[in-house]
Amino acid sequence: MAGNKSTRTRQSYECDVCGHQPAKWVGRCPECGEWGSVVERAPAPAGPGRAAPMRAPLTPARPIAEYSMAPAQARPTGVGELDRVLGGGLVPGSVVLLAGEPGVGKSTLLLEVAQQWAATGSGAPALVISGEESVGQVRLRAERIGALHEQLYLAAETDLAAVLGQLDAVKPSLLILDSVQTVAAASVDGVPGGVTQVRAVAAALVAVAKERGISVVLVGHVTKEGNVAGPRVLEHLVDVVLHFEGDKHASLRMVRGLKNRFGAADEVGCFEMHEGGMSSLPDPSGLFLNRYAEPVPGTCVSVAMEGRRALVTELQALIGATMPGSPRRTVSGLDPARLAMVLAVVQRCRPQIRLHDREVFAATVGGIRVVEPAADLACALAVASGSLNLGIAADLVAIGEVGLTGEVRRVSAVPRRLAEAARLGFRRALVPPGSGPAAGPVPDGMRVHEARNLPEALHWAALASADD
Known about the structure:
It contains eleven helices and 20 strands.
């Protein structure tokens, strides 16, 4: 009886979408809510586990100072903004996951990276493997953006064994797989793109990258919520996770670092999408500004932080007609919840500004999305300016978070924000208390005023406009 009990097996179930393992089969996954995604896996033997026997290590441990840093030196990709996010370039043996929405430009960017890598390489070619498009489609895109080179190889494969065979044949120093959800391993159960398949394919490519010193870039899909699709273990397996974002109706594209074992994980790279491909934007602030000769009501400029980069951004607000019931609140590039809060605070601090029964339209310029609280003060000034039909001085920037009682709160990196604003010609700034000259150096020629609350900021902005 005891022997039969030890050899008894139990059924195993797993969700193909999120990897959750329920105790029994259910029609809907309790973790992610998908219907029909729970499948049965091969039964696992039940019984007490035994510790693995000890063996001699293949490589004995050494003092950490004796190891060389040379194998972890990054090699530039030739695309400056991508190198900025990666921390200098691609490290041999590293695996990078680049995720983004369909049509945002992932394949175009990586095709340019492969061409630059092949052109500036040390003899080892770059290999692009497409699992979603035919070689003819990729060839047409390469012709359009000028990404042709004799050291750039292309193949279309959806089988993991075939991908590894291409690595043996080409022996590249860079592998780009577009995308990891389209490749399947014949020895693993599950459909391509499922949790089990994605996990197995990613683990195999990570092992090959470490063994051969190949830099690998995996293209990943995203869910409707904007998160990286597939099991969470995929993000743990790779060394770098990047998110490619942008509005299809605007030219701005951003690569945002979410994880980086070789550098800072909060960097952002800016690109401009055009007919000839993707170009880096080392100074993108000009995209987010409309410089006016005279003050225009309903506009105010702030400085947003994207990673470690300060971006001067213009916020616009239009106060529409009076509407009975619930007037519209249309927002583009801003957080709707924060806008609603700012509108309530503005009306409380200035009762003559009636907003509860009027339409309000607020947006950023250039397609950038600003959700940090540091833009609250500029948003409030733009709303008040549009409501009162009074223009704000064209050389004024406003930086600060607005609280529910109207106080202006401190935000991070104010000196860096002021330096970027001064570089673009702004000469006046509204900042929170304690963020002026006493907190750090103020750029030459810039007047900085510390506003304790929103009424004080509105008063100082009106005086600055009167001076013009």
